Amino acid sequence: MPGPESRGSRQPGAKFSKESLVNVGAIFRVMWDHYKGLFCLVIVGILVSAWAMLQSTLFMQSLIDEYITPMLAQRDAGATTLDYRPLALAIGRLGVVAAVGVGAAYLYNRLMVTISQGTLRTLRVEVFEHMESLPIKYFDTHSHGDIMSIYTNDIDTLRQLISQTIPQFVNSGVTLVMTLISMCVLSLPLTALTLVMVALMMMVTGRIGTSAAKHFSDQQQNLGKVNGFIEETISGEKVVKVFCHEERSIDDFEALNHELRDSATSANRLSSVLMPIVMSLGNVSYVLCAIVGSWIAVGMGLVSLGTLVSFLSLNRSFTQPITQISQQLSAITQASAGAGRVLALLAEQPESDEGYVELVNVREENGKLVESDSRTGRWAWKHPHEAEGTVTYMPLMGELVMDGVDFGYVPEKQILHDIRLFALPGQKIAFVGATGAGKTTITNLINRFYDIDDGKIRYDGINITKIRKPELRRSLGMVLQDPHLFTGSVMENIRYGRLDATDEECIEAAKLVSADDFIRRLPDGYNTQITGDGGNLSAGQRQLLTIARAAVADPPALILDEATSSIDTHTEQLVQAGMDALMRDRTTFVIAHRLSTVRDSDCIMVMEQGRIIERGTHDELIAARGKYFELYTGNQIEAE
User: Fold this and answer.
1) Structural contact between residues 314 and 183, judged by C-beta atoms closer than 8 angstroms
2) Which of 168, 299, 444, 607 could be disulfide-bonded to 449 (CB atoms 3.0-4.6 Å)?
């Protein structure tokens, strides 16, 4: 979506006439693709309704010229009785036409409710599905509250567009065409006068609508910022109160809210004055036609009185759609801004995956590995060879090699420099170093949350770019530093690691990491409901549940990113045995600031400013009396 600079560089009117129409057209295509049959019925209903309304207007001519005027002449001629039966029949026919029009209007409005709500549902599903395909980089660079605003505020702006504006435009277009033809038949001079006034109305509508479009776009952008700030403040409310930043938060919110108010005021001011101006021009058109028409009918005798009355009604019918369209312009501009943000998210490039190697369960048959449909506990890489038309099954060992890896989150700033390491199957590799040294970045690269700039990463001898990302990540259980729990029961949160896990397997996983004891002391045990990201649990308890989640997944390899950072020393001792059991025979990468947790690692990598400056076992690094020695003895001194 274009930024403020690009918007400002456009010529006046370009945004409304091009980008707005493109955005609205894209939403219309979504609606048409899913509900073309129902929308065709809506168009039929609109045609019938417009035809019925036109018949009611044209009836004024025949009512005056064919019924009222002759009957008045008969009365003036001295007739004592008048025959009202022809008039009654005509009114009866008009009543039937009106009833058909009302039924058609009711039908297409009911159908539009189904179409609009169904289209919004489809859009939300498409946006959510596409969001799930986006790389981690997107969520690292976009406010979560701003993304949430797309699902709520931006998509909701499309509701009026679909349910009211689109059918109103179709109805107005049909009415304009039918009315114009009828007006030309009745009086060409009066039709020309009406078209001049309509041209003036459209010019005013276009100018004001163009100005309003930019402000509505700014309004949606500012609304996303406000939502993002609120979401961030709510999630960090404890931090706000700890540092007594309530007043600062209020000031920041007021600044954002002030921007939202200004853009919304400007947009709604323009959209609010548009309809009164157009209605006033419509009244001027009516008065001019009445004056000129009276002179033509009375002074020149070119049209009948019934024709003049009918034409004035058509004048109203002709300018009314212009007024209705101008009234919907605010909805169009606002919906265009919302649609632009929705389409911008849908235009984001999904996470690319060129891999073709899969992770499968295998069993041994006649001395060979064969793929198994059931869970066997043995894993292998399924490596197809298209040229030979064969498939090779390579046992998953957990060997990982990084060879000369360079990486930067942005091209102009490199984070990792020439990273070289190897992890043999079943080894425990630890990364230590100051904050920002690049420890977590390495695990992000192993998972391919980001792709490296240079070098190679091989997993069991396979370049990880050849492994399908879901399969790669399925082989790597991960426990993050910041635990995240979902709304649901404790059992459901543990089962999130493997959805087909039984209750018994979830309980065993909890026992393995020493979480079973505190879970059973909860009000409903494993059925205790968790809300608000586990706000009713302590930080350590939340982390234990995420470790249990990784345990039930039973992954071939593990990544522990400060997995015990939220656990107190006593609880850490209890969970360490379970963690050791979980890591047994698995290649494990551990990121830790608490160096006591990595003493038994097979290899410790000491990182500084994106480089590995030391490597070795705990005893080797202590004997070297280098950076690790400083970190370790410093921690020891602080602990004392």
Assistant:
1) yes
2) 444
d(CA 47, CA 57) in angstroms, rounded, equals 15
- Of the chain, the end-to-end C-alpha distance in Å amounts to 56
CATH of the domain at 15: 1.20.1560.10
pLDDT confidence band for 407 (50 / 70 / 90): very high
The answer to the question of residue 44 being in a domain is yes
Rounded alpha-carbon distances, angstroms, from residue 283 to 61, 295, 395: 21, 19, 83
**DSSP labels, 141-167:** HS-HHHHHHIIIIIHHHHHHIIIIIHH
**CA 529 to mean position of chain CA atoms:** 27
Rounded CA-CA distance 192/212 in Å is: 30
> How far, in Å, CA of 357 to CA of 371, rounded?
14
Task: With CA atoms as reference, report the closest residue to 319 among 206, 191, 210, 208.
Answer: 191
Q: At residue 232, does pLDDT exceed 80? A: no
On whether the pTM is more than 0.85, the answer is no
Compute CA distances 14 → 148, 199, 274, whole Å: 29, 20, 19
Helix (H/G/I), strand (E/B), else coil: 245: coil
**What is the rounded CA–CA span in Å between residue 364 and residue 230?**
56
Q: Residue 617 carries which DSSP code?
A: -
- At 488, which helix (H) or strand (E)? strand 488-489
Residue 571: the pLDDT is 66
**What gap in Å lies between CA 320 and CA 429, rounded to an integer?**
75
In a domain, 541, yes or no: yes
Q: How far is CA 223 from the centre of its chain?
A: 14
| Residues 418, 335 within the same domain | no
Identify the CA nearest to 333 among candidates 224, 228, 205, 226.
205
So what's the pLDDT on residue 330? 67
Where are the extended beta strands (E) located within 340-389? 358-365, 368-371, 379-385
Calpha distance 173→164 (Å, rounded): 14
Q: What residues contact residue 5 under an 8 Å CB cut-off, 6+ apart?
A: none
**Would you tell me how many other CB atoms lie within 10 Å of the CB of residue 88?**
11
User: What are the CA-CA distances from residue 187 to residues 291, 292, 605 (Å)?
Assistant: 14, 11, 91
Q: Look at residue 15 and tell me whether its pLDDT is greater than 60.
A: no
140, 67 in Cβ contact below 8 A?
no
Could you give the C-alpha distances from 238 to 25, 146, 606, in angstroms and in order?
45, 21, 33
Q: Is 562 left (phi over 0), alpha (psi -120 to 50) or beta?
A: left
Which amino acid type is present at position 141?
T
Asked whether residue 629 falls in the same domain as residue 481, the answer is: yes
Residue 567's pLDDT band (cuts 50, 70, 90) = low
Say whether both 383 and 437 belong to one domain.
no
Residue 433 has phi, psi (to 5 degrees) of 150, 175
